[in-house]
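To: structure subgroup
Subject: Chain for Friday's discussion

All,

I'm putting the inputs and outputs inline so they're searchable in the archive.
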Amino acid sequence: MADRSSSTPSYRTAFLAGIVGLAIALTGCQAKIVQHGNVPDEDEVVQIQPGQDDKNRVEQLLGSPSTTGTFGDDVWYYVSKRTSQTAFFEPDVIDQGVLAIAFDSQGIVQDLKVYDKSDGRLVAMVDRQTPTHGNELTIIQQMLGNFGRFSPDQNGPKTGPTGTTGAPGGV
C-alpha cells in the first residue's frame, strides 16, 4: 500500500503556488488612472473678470499655461486629460478639457472658453510614405561598402591642385 502522506504536500504546494500566481496576475490587470496637464480649480477660474484682469492676475490664479497661441501669446491654453489603462490595452479617455483665455493687445482678458471631451475631433492619420531617391541598401551592404573607402593619412593633409588643404586662408 502506498503512503499518501508523502504526495499530499506536493499537491498542497502546487495549489498554493497557483493561488499566489493567480493573485499576482489579477493585480496586474487593475486599471491605472493617469492625469496629464494642468486642471485649473473651478473656484479660481470664476474669479477671472473679462475686461478687468490681466495676464499677471491670470498667472497668479491659475499658474503658467500649458501652451500659448501659435502666432503669439494672445491666447493661453490650460490643457488637461485623464485616462484609464488596463494592462497592455489602449488607454480610455475618462475626461479631457481645455480652458482658452484670450487677451487683447494690452494683455487684458477678453474671453474665456471651456472645451471638453465632446468638443474634440478625431484626426485621421495618413499612412503614406514620402519616396526618397537613391539606392536602398541593407545594413550588410552599407557595412561592406565602407571597406577600402578610407585609408590612414600617412603624408599629412591631402592638398588640392593649388597646394591648399581647402581650409580658409589656404592653411
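Points worth raising on Friday:
The longest helix spans residues 8-27.
The mean pLDDT is 80.

D.
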